[in-house]
Amino acid sequence: MDVYHTPAAALDSLVARNLLPSSEFLAAARRALGDLAASLRERGGRAAAQPWRVLKIAKGGSDGRGTALSGGCDSELVLFLTCFKSYEDQRVRRAEILSELQTLLQSWWQKPIHGLSFEFPRQDRPGVLWFRLASPDLEHWMDVSLVPAFDALGPLNSNVKPVPQVYSTLLSSGCQGGEHAACFSELRRNFVNTRPAKLKNLILLVKHWYRQVAAQNKGQQPACASLPPVYALELLTIFAWEQGCGKDSFKTAEGLKTVLELIQQHQQLCVYWTVNYSFEDPAIRTHLLGQLQKKRPLVLDPADPTWNVGQGSWELLAQEAAALGTQVCFRSGKETSVQPWDVMPALLYQTPAGDLDKFIGEFLQPNRQFLAQVNKAVDAICSFLRENCFRNSAIKVLKVVKGGSLAKGTALRGRSDADLVVFLNCFSQFTEQGTKRTEVISEIRAQLEACQQEMQFEVKFEIPKWENSRVLSFSLTSQTMLDQSVDFDVLPAFDALGQLVPGYRPPSQVYVDLIHSYNHAGEFSTCFTELQRNFIISRPTKLKSLIRLVKYWYRQCNKMPKGRGSLPPQHGLELLTVYAWEQGGRDPQFNMAQGFRTVLELVSQYHQLCVYWTVNYNDKDKTVRDFLNRQLRQPRPIILDPADPTGNLGHNARWDLLAEEAAAYMSALCCMSRDGTPIRPWPVKVGEQWSSRGRLRWGQHAQGRPGLRPEGQA
């Protein structure tokens, strides 16, 4: 039954054999509780000084939620009584009601139920009356709480939210956090009980591990007594599954590892749902925004917004979670480590607009130490390739250039991609890049392997098994932060630009040759890697942070089911972000939410997008001018690569899917002011209209740079 020594493939068997509760004991206990409920309904508080009766009884606890664990579990019988007309009434009469319930309970147990023992312990739980039902051998037990409560919800309708007044009245009652949680037991039960069977099994596994941690450290650490409630881990497991998987069938080891990694990030946890309450009501919105400003961890009960179930000491759990992460339960059959789902401890769309800069800093900014290590390693690799490739050949390495997000300064934390472009003298024109490719890749690979053997790096340098003689890649991974890595593609290329100097602008002939050589959009974009890099790298730091935010949003969208077709390339969203900032005023210290809202607005208007720059190519040459005329007559959206005019990054992609997600985010908390009104986007021009002649002339582009504009427009 030890999770620590159970192989990953055997975790499901562990749950099935050892963690599911005894069906015989559960049946007996439920019969007993059904009999008790019937007795309470019948007898009620008729003999009380102020008579009361039971309106309804709701079953909660882990038994009600379907997450009861073998050995010991808990159940909750919430008695909704006629004598409570408000939340406040519960405080006034609770002691009296509990005393009367105790008398009724003792009378009911005079007729014992076969197969169960009854224990009435010292009552040390405020606001409830509790007892224990146990099997004769005491191997199985259930702690049952009787909780008198105000019927705040009335009759429940499936899939219908409670009216906002239920919660606004709760907030105005002056209650403590979670004081009236019992009033919402039905919502709490339904939130968990409707989940897939395998997710409930994962919850059992997490609870079993939690029980092991508590038992091992009982009496040894002060933290043990103040662990967060196990219900917090149930909610965290649901959160991990919703954000990382969402499927009825999944690998249990991956789910467990995801939950444990979230526990280790408890100081950043911000978990809540709006299935029962939301930001629409002003009183609830004010309360929720106040909750979101509190110290982490924050795990709000989905039924009661006043109850942060994440309160408690997480340090011990985090230590044990880190220890478990290295055990056999997270090794696959090939001795490789099980990978967790991609889940962050907070969600972008649930982040208040004013906290977006903090969100980027905490979750999206790469680790500086890792970036420094990667850049140092890449510089060493580039030098090694320049000095050692093609030593005994007429082929020479002219230069090696870093490309992609790492070079631009827009890399995201976690796993990112980059390019290493090797410019060779054996290519004298664009079309020759395809020739000798196998030979060139073979030599570069051999030197990469030699570099791997001869040099020591602060990062883990891995070259995957060679499966395609025309493709070469490698990865650099942190030695201490295994979730931090960069995957590189090594790309041989024709040196169309030569040596670049500050202010360099390619001769028109470069683009004339490109136009005459290409067969499909962006075919030779690697030749312009330096221009693509320079276009972004010179931008203000905060704009690069906005690009990171947009890229992260894009990756979330990429997880959605797409059907046929693919989303636009990520580079297109980077360029759209730069365009939004340029058009929006070029303020280096802009409002992050406003910038993000503007990009989403542009995505939603993709049918009209016409975005281009003329910092590298222009209309002085007739061939280039005619080509740009044709490009800009294409159906919208148009986003031309500022380094390569053949690359239209808006063409043939599922912009409609991105637009749907953009619309959803524009109405989310991350794009709303504190008063609930939408953040206003920057005033950005979306597209250009062509004159009847459809010709271009020089003018001032919308960004304030020289650009091509339709004739007849100022």
From TrEMBL:
<dbReference type="InterPro" id="IPR002934">
    <property type="entry name" value="Polymerase_NTP_transf_dom"/>
</dbReference>
<comment type="subunit">
    <text>Monomer.</text>
</comment>
<keyword id="KW-0677">Repeat</keyword>
<dbReference type="GO" id="GO:0045087">
    <property type="term" value="P:innate immune response"/>
</dbReference>
<feature type="domain" description="Polymerase nucleotidyl transferase">
    <location>
        <begin position="381"/>
        <end position="470"/>
    </location>
</feature>
<dbReference type="GO" id="GO:0051607">
    <property type="term" value="P:defense response to virus"/>
</dbReference>
<keyword id="KW-0479">Metal-binding</keyword>
<dbReference type="GO" id="GO:0005524">
    <property type="term" value="F:ATP binding"/>
</dbReference>
<dbReference type="GO" id="GO:0016020">
    <property type="term" value="C:membrane"/>
</dbReference>
<dbReference type="GO" id="GO:0003725">
    <property type="term" value="F:double-stranded RNA binding"/>
</dbReference>
<keyword id="KW-0694">RNA-binding</keyword>
<dbReference type="Pfam" id="PF10421">
    <property type="entry name" value="OAS1_C"/>
</dbReference>
<dbReference type="InterPro" id="IPR006117">
    <property type="entry name" value="2-5OAS_C_CS"/>
</dbReference>
<feature type="domain" description="2'-5'-oligoadenylate synthetase 1">
    <location>
        <begin position="505"/>
        <end position="685"/>
    </location>
</feature>
<dbReference type="GO" id="GO:0005654">
    <property type="term" value="C:nucleoplasm"/>
</dbReference>
<keyword id="KW-0007">Acetylation</keyword>
<keyword id="KW-0391">Immunity</keyword>
<keyword id="KW-0539">Nucleus</keyword>
<keyword id="KW-0460">Magnesium</keyword>
<dbReference type="GO" id="GO:0001730">
    <property type="term" value="F:2'-5'-oligoadenylate synthetase activity"/>
</dbReference>
<keyword id="KW-0399">Innate immunity</keyword>
<comment type="similarity">
    <text>Belongs to the 2-5A synthase family.</text>
</comment>
<dbReference type="GO" id="GO:0045071">
    <property type="term" value="P:negative regulation of viral genome replication"/>
</dbReference>
<keyword id="KW-0808">Transferase</keyword>
<keyword id="KW-0963">Cytoplasm</keyword>
<keyword id="KW-0547">Nucleotide-binding</keyword>
<dbReference type="Pfam" id="PF01909">
    <property type="entry name" value="NTP_transf_2"/>
</dbReference>
<dbReference type="InterPro" id="IPR018952">
    <property type="entry name" value="2-5-oligoAdlate_synth_1_dom2/C"/>
</dbReference>
<dbReference type="GO" id="GO:0046872">
    <property type="term" value="F:metal ion binding"/>
</dbReference>
<feature type="region of interest" description="Disordered">
    <location>
        <begin position="695"/>
        <end position="714"/>
    </location>
</feature>
<dbReference type="InterPro" id="IPR043519">
    <property type="entry name" value="NT_sf"/>
</dbReference>
<keyword id="KW-0051">Antiviral defense</keyword>
<keyword id="KW-0548">Nucleotidyltransferase</keyword>
<dbReference type="InterPro" id="IPR006116">
    <property type="entry name" value="NT_2-5OAS_ClassI-CCAase"/>
</dbReference>
<feature type="domain" description="2'-5'-oligoadenylate synthetase 1">
    <location>
        <begin position="161"/>
        <end position="345"/>
    </location>
</feature>
<keyword id="KW-0067">ATP-binding</keyword>
<protein>
    <recommendedName>
        <fullName>2'-5'-oligoadenylate synthase 3</fullName>
        <ecNumber>2.7.7.84</ecNumber>
    </recommendedName>
</protein>
<dbReference type="GO" id="GO:0005829">
    <property type="term" value="C:cytosol"/>
</dbReference>
<dbReference type="InterPro" id="IPR043518">
    <property type="entry name" value="2-5OAS_N_CS"/>
</dbReference>
